[in-house]
C-alpha cells in the first residue's frame, strides 16, 4: 500500500510541476494544479496521518510510538514506511502550493517565464530554497509597486 501511494504521489507531483513550469498558465491549468495536485496530495496526507495516528493503518517499521510531542515520537513516525510516505507527501503538497503561489505572483509582477523556471525547479527539488530565492528576487519589484502582496 505505502509503495503504491508513494509512487502515485511522485508521478502526480511531477506531472503537475511539469505543467506549471512548461505550459501556458491558463486558469484551468492553475485550478488543476491547485485541486488535482495540491488538493489530492493534502487529502492523501490527511487520510494517511489520521490512519497512522489512530492505528487504523499499520505504519510498518516504527518502534517508538508515533507522536509530535517529542523527537523520538517524530522519529517513530518517519522510521516507518507509512510515516515516510506521508512525510514525503507533506513535502510534495506544500512545495507545490508554494510553487503555484510563486508562479502566480511572478506572472502578476511581470517576471519572465525564463526567470521563473529555475526558481520553480528549485522549489520542486528543495522547497524552502526556491521559496527563499523567490522572496529575494521579488522584493524589489514588489516594493516598487508599493505593495507586499
Task: Explain what this protein looks like in three dimensions.
This protein has 149 residues and is mainly alpha-helical. 79% of the residues lie in helices and 0% in strands. It is built from 5 helices and no strands. It has helices at 2-22, 27-54, 71-78, 81-108, 113-144. The longest helix has 32 residues, at 113-144. The mean pLDDT is 90.
Write a compact overview of the structure shown:
The chain is mostly helical and 149 residues long.
Number of helices: 5
**Poorly predicted spans:** none
**Which geometry do the CA atoms define?**
elongated
Give the proportion of residues in helices.
over 70%
Main sheet makeup: none
Question: Radius of gyration, rounded?
Answer: 18 Å
| Spatial gap, N to C terminus | 41 Å
Q: Could you state the order of secondary-structure elements as H and E?
A: HHHHH
Mean pLDDT, to the nearest integer, reads 90
How many β-strands, per DSSP?
0
How much of the sequence is in beta strands? under 5%
SS-based class: mainly alpha
Oligomer: single chain
Distinctive features:
149 residues, mainly alpha, 79% helix
How are the secondary structure elements laid out?
Elements: H1 2-22, H2 27-54, H3 71-78, H4 81-108, H5 113-144
Amino acid at each position: 500500500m505505502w509503495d503504491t501511494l508513494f509512487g502515485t504521489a511522485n508521478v502526480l507531483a511531477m506531472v503537475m510541476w511539469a505543467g506549471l513550469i512548461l505550459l501556458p498558465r491558463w486558469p484551468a491549468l492553475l485550478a488543476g494544479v491547485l485541486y488535482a495536485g495540491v488538493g489530492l496530495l493534502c487529502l492523501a496526507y490527511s487520510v494517511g496521518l489520521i490512519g497512522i495516528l489512530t492505528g487504523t493503518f499499520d505504519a510498518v517499521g516504527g518502534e517508538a510510538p508515533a507522536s509530535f510531542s517529542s523527537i523520538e515520537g517524530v522519529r517513530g513516525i518517519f522510521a516507518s514506511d507509512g510515516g515516510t510516505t506521508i512525510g514525503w507527501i507533506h513535502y510534495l503538497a506544500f512545495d507545490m502550493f508554494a510553487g503555484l503561489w510563486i508562479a502566480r505572483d511572478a506572472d502578476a509582477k511581470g517576471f519572465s517565464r525564463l526567470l521563473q523556471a529555475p526558481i520553480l525547479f528549485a522549489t520542486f527539488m528543495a522547497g524552502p530554497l526556491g521559496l527563499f530565492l523567490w522572496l529575494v528576487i521579488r522584493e524589489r519589484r514588489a516594493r516598487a509597486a508599493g505593495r507586499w502582496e
